[in-house]
Amino acid sequence: MDNTQILGYLGALVVGLVLGLIGGGGSILTVPLLVYLLGYNPIVATAYSLFVVGTTSLVGTFQKYREGLVDIKTGLAFSFPSFVAVYLSRRYLVPSIPNTLLSTSGFTLTKEMGIMVFFSIIMLLAAVSMIKNKNDNSVPTSKQAYYKTFIQGLTIGTITGIIGAGGGFLYVPALVLWANIPMKKAVGTSLIIVTINSLIGFTGDVQTLDIEWTFLILFSLISVLGILIGVYLSKFISGEKLKKSFGVFTLIMAIYIVYREIST
């Protein structure tokens, strides 16, 4: 095992740690890790990300549920339209995207580059929404209408399907800002959605890609260890700090991805 592989597996531990702390961000780390450090094609990396984040989030969901930090009804309401959109996106939309999106003199925007840039833009928007929002720990007085939840789940599911993310970095802001769920409960609830979306989305990739199962399972097991640590540590951190940290972390990763894509 060389130094790059060791760093990759250490990164897997951090992926789980971040998921346990903030309920999202696993794909924000996993995709760049697989692409920039381990050299995987972005299409393969986004597929692997779905499996890693999905299996890791499944363990995290059980841990959060035991602490009473999961709103199952709201989580499932988001999950149904989301997993349908994720599966259809991974199975049909992503494979149908042309390899060259734009070509001019001296510049070619490839499918892989386009996905990574789109990934970073979505991350940037999610980060800003979490950093600037001031209504952090208010007690929710009402839940929004189901049709709004359905539309939101469908939209986020399509986006996360394209970028190969579990969607936690989008669902946490959505649950806090739209569904009026306190931050710590939003973190736990998002893990239900991320689990369902990721694993169902990954089934769409299994039909179109060759999977390195040995690497993927080992990477995922290390991430599971990380989420167990993260869930434990989250007990000692306030919801306010979690949300701000979530936003800043996402913003930094978005800027890094744009930098890498422009500089290569």
What share of residues is helical?
Answer: over 70%
- Derived from helix and strand composition plus strand pairing, the structural class reads mainly alpha
Major β-sheet strand ordering: 1-2
Q: Low-confidence segments, ≥5 residues, pLDDT <50?
A: 136-140
Distance between the termini: 27 Å
Major sheet attributes: 2 strands, antiparallel
Whole-number average pLDDT? Answer: 81
* Annotation field: number of helices: 10
**What is the string of helix and strand elements?**
HHHHEEHHHHHH
Q: Name the shape in a single word.
A: globular
Sheet-strand content, in percent, reads under 5%
Cα-atom radius of gyration? 17 Å
How many strands in all? 2
Written account of the structure:
This protein has 264 residues and is mainly alpha-helical. The protein has one domain. The protein contains 10 helices and 2 strands, in the order ααααββαααααα. The protein has a two-stranded antiparallel ribbon with strand order 1-2. Helix 1 packs antiparallel against helix 2 (26-37), helix 3 packs across helix 8 and helix 5 runs antiparallel to helix 10. The model is unreliable at 136-140 (pLDDT under 50). Keywords: Cell membrane, Membrane, Transmembrane, Transmembrane helix.
Descriptors for this entry?
transmembrane, globular, mainly alpha, TM_pro_TauE-like, 10 helices, transmembrane helix, Probable membrane transporter protein
